[in-house]
Amino acid sequence: MSYDIAVIEGDGIGPEVIDAVRPLIERTADGYGFGIETTNYGWGSERYLEEGAMMPEDGLDRLADHDAILLGAVGHPDVPDHVALHGLLLPIRKGFDQRICKRPSVLFEGIESPLRGYSGGEIDFVVFRENTEGEYADVGGREHRGEDHEVAVQTAVFTREATETIVRTAFEAAAEREGHLTNITKSNAQAYSMVFWDEVVAEVSEEYPTVAVERLLVDAASMDLVRRPEEFDVLVASNLFGDVLTDLGAIVSGSLGLAASANLASGDEPSMFEPVHGSAPDIVGQGVANPLATVLSTALLFDYLGESAASDRLWEVVREQLADPNAPRTPDVGGEAGTEDVVADLADRL
Amino acid sequence: MSYDIAVIEGDGIGPEVIDAVRPLIERTADGYGFGIETTNYGWGSERYLEEGAMMPEDGLDRLADHDAILLGAVGHPDVPDHVALHGLLLPIRKGFDQRICKRPSVLFEGIESPLRGYSGGEIDFVVFRENTEGEYADVGGREHRGEDHEVAVQTAVFTREATETIVRTAFEAAAEREGHLTNITKSNAQAYSMVFWDEVVAEVSEEYPTVAVERLLVDAASMDLVRRPEEFDVLVASNLFGDVLTDLGAIVSGSLGLAASANLASGDEPSMFEPVHGSAPDIVGQGVANPLATVLSTALLFDYLGESAASDRLWEVVREQLADPNAPRTPDVGGEAGTEDVVADLADRL
Ligand SMILES: CC(C)[C@H](C(=O)O)[C@@H](O)C(=O)O
Ligand SMILES: CC(C)[C@H](C(=O)O)[C@@H](O)C(=O)O
């Protein structure tokens, strides 16, 4: 068995991290009796600066036949963010109907949380974030540009189809975990989108009688991720709220450098796996970026391919490494080692 | 000099906290040579449950002639949140053009932050939140209700007028504080509203050459309020982002029970002062609600009335009380005292 993976190294630390992790990916696959073939797409902000587009016009078509996509990072100081993201990351999530964004938050043994009194093993939840619409819909405009009475509007769009998909996926996950789902909304202020969302949750919940549903407003939820992160099991949220809550989840679990994510397609198109961190222009080229978020994103990729033994093994070696006080670690988690050292140590443990 | 204050005790712990704090308000005013007359409006969810409306139809007219409004809390388990809030709190903020929501986050001496390594005095920032439009605009709808192809839309509305008001106010504050403004957006995903917002910030910034502007995406900002809260001075954000960030600000500063807020009118209509916390149905009637958020909201009110000596004094006695290990404190900040005890102790210190 061999899988055909599209790799988009992207911007900033993306290329150096992917380059470091690639041999580990191949070695893990080898060890578990499958092959990984990768095709590199050199898309990103450099391409934009030279050719005026983040990816070619037929970019999605070229990705479509791969079994999955691994993405490094997107974002560049010389390219406006909305250009970079609407030119590459967001069209893939939307174009391939990657409705489900799954982001685990785990405080590993050996990692210090910025929260007082939490130690390894005590935080372990997963956020399911709607990934293709909501507050990220490309709907809106501006009128009377530059005038005193200018107005800008931005419309969030929620379809029942996408909403039911993410909500049902979260219930499935909760049923398999601790049976506890937290539904995040802001229905007190957003009486159309969020009241609709709450209704969908109420409907779907009838199919999952064993799952207890808690409802939290996004402001209270942000606070509670700081105040009582250990009480969460599965959270479900819209695109924007999921964005905020997963960054919070990453920081209370120690570092954005450890946060992995899966963008799962609802149909036949490929899913995409990427670290939650961005392109980190401040540390580009120093060789100190934490590769673990990309390693764990690969673990999510393996799991998606059905190679769960290989996936589990990657989680295991990361766990082992972080728990080992003598193992190399990057500066974001309190060490002084480089990207390559961390990957080499993982390879030894495999 | 005597001021005429409208008091809306509202729901849940609102009445018990306001009742406890009221004598302190009068006493402070007395001590500084001005009078406070209060008129009670018994509006809120109980009224809704009996009469079908949170406030009378001419509610805003009745409030309009007061010098300011003091609000307890809004929210009731038997009333849907969007009904309670759209029936009372939000119409006042909008109807009186209270465009500026000002929320200080201070980690007081004697208060333990949930963040490792922070102690009293180390966190001190203020968020200026747009308060009348943005993501809270009452614009949207649902089509194909209940069908598979149902769609719900919610439109955020940003006017240049309101955006410039909040941005300019934040720059003014930054110029008077440490000269450091953090502009929160999500321009990488919301290319209409947030790109507009960034443009307004860039324009207004030219009037304030001494203020350094940092730009942060809301997801990164949420993380940074946990990772490096000490580095913030003044933040400016939209209605929704301000909502999330001020709850985060409250929790990293120890407790929502200490967080005060001012809703400042841009024109002649009255401003409103309220604690950031909600109606807290779980502790209603137990007499243990923390009154300090309401006391500090009163301090913001005094300041707004031009009674800055009285305002300063209230901040001072709260600071003193919290720094005193023998002073009574409520359970949310690690004590066992009741609302009344805390207020009585403050009165003694005055
Ligand atoms: C880069 C940005 C558009 C993206 C998002 O908001 O989804 C990122 O923050 C993420 O969480 O993957
Ligand atoms: C109650 C709710 C509508 C309100 C808001 O979102 O503004 C509250 O959370 C606040 O922060 O004052």
UniProtKB/TrEMBL annotation, chains A, B:
Which InterPro entries does this UniProt record tie to the protein? ICDH/IPMDH (IPR050501), IsoCit/isopropylmalate_DH_CS (IPR019818), IsoPropMal-DH-like_dom (IPR024084)
Keyword terms of this UniProt record: Manganese, Metal-binding, NAD, Oxidoreductase
As one GO molecular function, the record gives:
oxidoreductase activity
ATP-binding among keywords = no
Q: Name one Pfam family in it.
A: Iso_dh
Domain of life per record:
Archaea
Give the cofactors, semicolon-separated. Answer: Mn(2+); Mg(2+)
Domain (Isopropylmalate dehydrogenase-like): give its ranges: 4-346
Decide whether keyword Oxidoreductase is in the record.
Answer: yes
Q: What is this protein called?
A: Isocitrate/isopropylmalate dehydrogenase family protein
